[in-house]
Write the C-alpha cells for this entry.
Amino acid sequence: MAEEKIFRSPRKRGRVAVLLSGRGSNFRAIHDAMAEGKINAGVVAVVSNRAEAPGLQTASERGLEALYLDPKACASKEAYDEAIVAELKKREIDLVCLAGYMKIVTPLFCQAFRNQIMNIHPALLPSFPGLHAQKQAVDYGVRYSGATVHFVSEEVDGGPIILQAVVPVYQDDTEETLADRILVWEHKIYPEAVRLYFEGKLEVRGRKVYILE
C-alpha cells in the first residue's frame, strides 16, 4: 500500500497572486484583511483574462501590480496557463487565489502549483459545481446552500475542501437574492482560509484538509 502523501501549508510571510475576471469583491476582502494585519501575506499581483475587469482597476488604485494577459495571444488553453505560470513563478508566488476567475485552469497549472491554488465556490460542494450554482440550488429546492473554499485540482470544483459556510435558502429566493447572502459569507471564509494557510495550519491528507491547532 502506497504511503499517503501529506502536505502542510507553510508558516511564513506569503506572496499571493489573485486571478479574476470581474469586479473582484473577494480579492478586496482578502486584501482588506491583509491591510488590517489579519493575514501574514501580501498581494504581489492581480492577473486577469479580461482587460476591462473592474478588479484590475481596483488593484491599480490600491497600488498593486495589475496584469492583463490576453488569452487570444496564445494558441491553446495550455499555452495560456503556461504564460500565467511563468509570470507567477517570476514573482515567486506562494499562493494563487482564484476570485471570480471565469476560466477553468488546466492540469498544467494545477501541477505547477499543487496545493497552492485556492478557489471559492457559491455552494456547498460537492453539491452544485460549475456555473450558476445559486440558480441550481434555488431550482433544486434545497433548504440550505452556502460557500466553499477549496484547493484547486484537475477536477472542476472537486479539490479538497478547506472551509464552508451554510446559508439558508428561503422559499421566495431568486438566484440574485441567494447570491447576495452567500457573498457575505464568501468575504468571511476566503480571507480566513488564506490566514490559516500562512499560519501553517492547513494539512492535506488525500482529499481531506485538516485544520491544525
Notes: The chain has a mean pLDDT of 97. Strands lie at 6-8, 14-20, 41-48, 65-68, 95-98, 117-121, 144-151, 161-168, 202-205, 208-211.
